[in-house]
Amino acid sequence: MTTPLTFETIQRAPKALLHDHLDGGLRPTTVIELAAETGYDKLPATDADELATWFRTAAHSGSLVRYLEPFAHTVGVMQTPEALHRVAYECVEDLAADNVVYAEVRFAPELHIDGGMSLDEVVEAVLAGFADGEKAAAAAGHTIVVRCLVTAMRHAARSREIAELAIRFRDKGVVGFDIAGAEAGNPPSRHLDAFEYLRANNARFTIHAGEAFGLPSIHEAIAFCGADRLGHGVRIVDDITVDADGTPRLGRLAALLRDKRIPFEMCPSSNVQTGAVRSIAEHPIDLLARLRFRVTVNTDNRLMSDTTMSREMWKLVQTFGYGWSDLQRFTINAMKSAFIPFDQRLAIIDDVIKPRYAVLIG
């Protein structure tokens, strides 16, 4: 018999996560404790519940630029090797507790050198935290694989340097590259040197595009930069029209993305907070899923959105009436789109995801 689909049963289902920011997923208690340890005295609250509420409220701004402002506090307490290791370790613990079996967690090393660490030391601390977190999760009965994406800030001029960092650590846990930050005025084509370097080294990368800016951002990410995946990409809906009789018509860019199976790293709760969409009900994820774009479900920033993978999936179930087969498809879409080698992706799909969903579906 099919297992009833509830929030609790969704928590038991295996999940794959492609778009999660390390500095957007700290535990409120950890932020407070690290601030005390490192002498950071700018927190807006020192009670864990009050701080969690502040982050969620401040992030729900209707603007990507304002949404990014609270990150100054999480980044502010992540300036030592010990802090980075702890945050990475706890990230794995929290994801494993939600039955995430594979995750790619991204962060911007250039934001964590104020305490004197080199870029390499920053990445080493995070990777060590991930590795130790995996071991602890396995000991607790949760098998999880966590890999890292290094992110360059699109308003800065260090993208080539960060791309080189990704290549240096490609066999140590870093599986790809990303650019992030305010989209308007910072087109992805400004970083062509980094993307050309990555392609020359047969590396994989994703680009934040089509979140707070329109189709030109998506077009540049694909046509000029050669992105393997799109971070968010919600504005692709501007290239899709639906006739009065319900017939969808894809523009050339939308058709290209569907034909090429370009993955969309969609983050519903975050997209509402930033004003990319007005509500979950108006999110284009359902239209894109029905049109068979390669859609994935993600958390983006678990602290700011007060979310988990289970909560994101439950919201979609409640809003669009999805069943187990839909959640399985989103999960397999994510694993197909992961930046680890094909045989490793296939092993997680065939040996973990499908068998566990088979039990839930009945």
From TrEMBL:
For this protein, what is the EC number?
3.5.4.4
Active site per UniProt: E211
A biological process from GO: purine ribonucleoside monophosphate biosynthetic process
Q: Which residues bind substrate?
A: H21, D23, G181
Pfam families associated with the record: A_deaminase
Residues annotated to bind Zn(2+) = H19, H21, H208, D300
Catalytic activity, reaction form: 2'-deoxyadenosine + H2O + H(+) = 2'-deoxyinosine + NH4(+); adenosine + H2O + H(+) = inosine + NH4(+)
GO CC terms, sorted: cytosol
Instruction: Tell me the InterPro entries matching this sequence.
Output: A_deaminase, A_deaminase_dom, Ado/ade_deaminase, Metal_Hydrolase
Give an example GO molecular function: zinc ion binding
**Cofactor(s) listed in the protein's UniProt record:** Zn(2+)
Where would you find the membrane-spanning parts of this chain? none
Question: What does the note under cofactor report?
Answer: Binds 1 zinc ion per subunit.
- Name the enzyme's class: hydrolase
UniProt key word Hydrolase: yes
Q: Where is this site: Important for catalytic activity?
A: H232
SUPFAM superfamilies linked to this entry: Metallo-dependent hydrolases
Which HAMAP family does the entry mention?
A: A_deaminase
UniProt lists the family membership as follows:
Belongs to the metallo-dependent hydrolases superfamily. Adenosine and AMP deaminases family. Adenosine deaminase subfamily.
Explain the purpose of this protein: Catalyzes the hydrolytic deamination of adenosine and 2-deoxyadenosine.
Indicate what this protein is called per its UniProt record. Adenosine deaminase
Instruction: Give the source species.
Output: Mycolicibacterium hassiacum (strain DSM 44199 / CIP 105218 / JCM 12690 / 3849) (Mycobacterium hassiacum)
